[in-house]
Amino acid sequence: MSDTTIQQEVSKRRTFAIISHPDAGKTTLTEKLLMYAGAIHIAGSVKARKSTRHATSDWMEIEKQRGISVASSVMQMVYRDCVINLLDTPGHQDFSEDTYRVLTAVDAALMVIDAANGVEAQTLRLLAVCRARNTPILTFINKMDREVRDPLTLLDEIEQTLGMTATPFTWPIGMGNRFHGVFDLQNDCMRVFQPGEDRAKDDDEIISDLNDPDIVTRFGASLTDAQQEIELIKGASPEFDETAFLAGQQTPVFFGSAINNFGVREILDALVDLAPPPKSRQALQREIKPNEKKFSGVVFKIQANMNPAHRDRIAFVRICSGQFKRGMNIKVVRSGKDIRNNSVVSFLSQRRELLEVGYPGDIIGIPNHGTLQLGDTLTEGETLQFTGLPFFAPEIFQTVELADPLRSKQLKLGLTQLGEEGAIQVFRPHIGNTLLLGAVGVLQFEVVAHRLEHEYGVAARIAPAKYQVARWVTADNPRELQRFIETNAHRIAYDAVGAPTFLASYGAELSVTEENWPLIKFHKLREHAGLVFQTHMDG
Ligand code: G4P
Question: Which residue of 175, 204, 225, 429 shows the fewest CB atoms closer than 10 Å?
């Protein structure tokens, strides 16, 4: 494999996540993107998947019942000679930790906004994560076929609330019943809207001369209003600035209607033309360039029961450098173990297919039974540890007790596995036996209780615990740490990798302890099993 081939493959890759507030149209848009790129042929299959997910995975019943998207998945498609990897993210805020980890694996994000609702709470949260990583963001304003907010107001809202400049690439002509299409500001032409979800992909009517009297009569006031708005934004909006976009400071904006498959092509084109290919990634030891010869990758997600018949767990690995080849020797740096990878899969339009080769930006799935953990770095032998995949200190705690003491082995196994997936954090107290579960969102507990029962046959009693604050603790002097642990024994628990954690019932208790123990460091984030603490993000 020559360097040029790897470089060529890298420049063809686009890896992005779709983020939105629930119901903005993420699922619909995903489906249309896949359809447009030819990855699926039947409209509705992502939707079908959404509503019949329980067939794929039992615990996703919850998702179905609550009408929320809990899990995230990966899809790959080819468009205009580019390989596009699309990562779906859970829309519900209680799963934001999972979303955060998914966002560490992408090079760009597509933000879907419901034009009637504007910027919503979850969009803001997700955006904050993207901004922290300077992820470039494309914006799709959806549902223009409805009576929605005035587009100028929407643009203003994006700029004000999300703190970045917005540069429209298309502009809507009318809305609701009078939605006639979009004006393509780059190519100075109008793309005429036609409702209907299963239109062929290239049959949009294009109009170049908007001053043609027939056209003016045809679209009436919607057209003249849009023209005035376009004049306004041409004067007021900044030109597209690639550097600002790549730094996450400016977002190109597109209008459309996902359900009508309208405006979708512009998004795909923007991904190819504007979104960046994979970049270098930071490991503790050094920076790794994507076009390096040797393979490296990082596990950013673990998902169980994608196929209940196999009861397997898939580790989602983002390839960071080199070429992945089926059968090659891969080392898990944390454990030093080699893994056999003959069953590695790729995610072509949601089907799992055996993968022969993969390149930086691609997401590969490695079925395993606990060999791989979140945050693991995989290499061809070099000792590397990619950074930037944190665990957040839980904000809600519950205790877990067995209804049937004879099932304690199953409970332990279940909690270990769920902990390794990042579905929940499990803490073992320094004193006593009652396990503690920690989460960022309360729905995580529901998922865990449901999965314990259905996958491990364990009826567990989950009850609120008295804690509200947790901090991982470290010290330069191990003896000082030991002294802290012994003195505060009733407030110490160990997480899944044995990292000591201080628990407090409220914030003031933590502040007092911090004051009393100046040599102890209290951390809100923990990175991977290597116990690397990202102090610059701590607070
Ligand atoms: P999500 O994944 O972001 O949660 O949103 P999803 O795609 O499931 O879409 C949420 C709702 O918005 C769906 O309606 C969907 O049909 C609708 N929708 C998506 N895009 C558009 C659009 O461009 N225009 C209009 N008018 N509606 C759109 P639902 O009633 O919740 O589901 P369904 O009964 O239609 O399946």
Answer: 225
pLDDT at 528: 57
Nearest in space to 416 (alpha carbons), one of 462, 376, 373: 373
What number of other Cβ atoms are within 10 A of residue 462's Cβ? 15
Position in ligand 1 atom list of the atom nearest CA 262 = 23
DSSP string, 133-184: TT--EEEEEE-TTS----HHHHHHHHHHHH-SEEEESEEEE--GGG--EEEE
CA of 115 to the centre of ligand 1 (A): 12
Top pLDDT among 32 and 345 is at 32
Examine the fold and report which residue of 250, 273, 296 is the final residue of a domain before the chain moves on. Answer: 273
- Please check whether residue 79 lies inside any domain of the structure: no
Same domain, 303 and 257: no
User: Ligand 1 in contact with 123 (CB < 6 A)?
Assistant: no
The CATH number of the domain holding residue 116 is 3.40.50.300
In this prediction, residue 448 has a pLDDT band, given cuts at 50, 70 and 90, of confident
Beta-bridged to residue 20, according to DSSP, are: 112
Whole-structure pTM value: 0.83
Q: What is the 3-state secondary structure (H, E, C) of 101-114?
A: HHHCCCCEEEEEEE
Alpha carbon of 28 to ligand 1 centroid (Å): 6
Q: Which domain holds residue 119?
A: 16-69+109-273
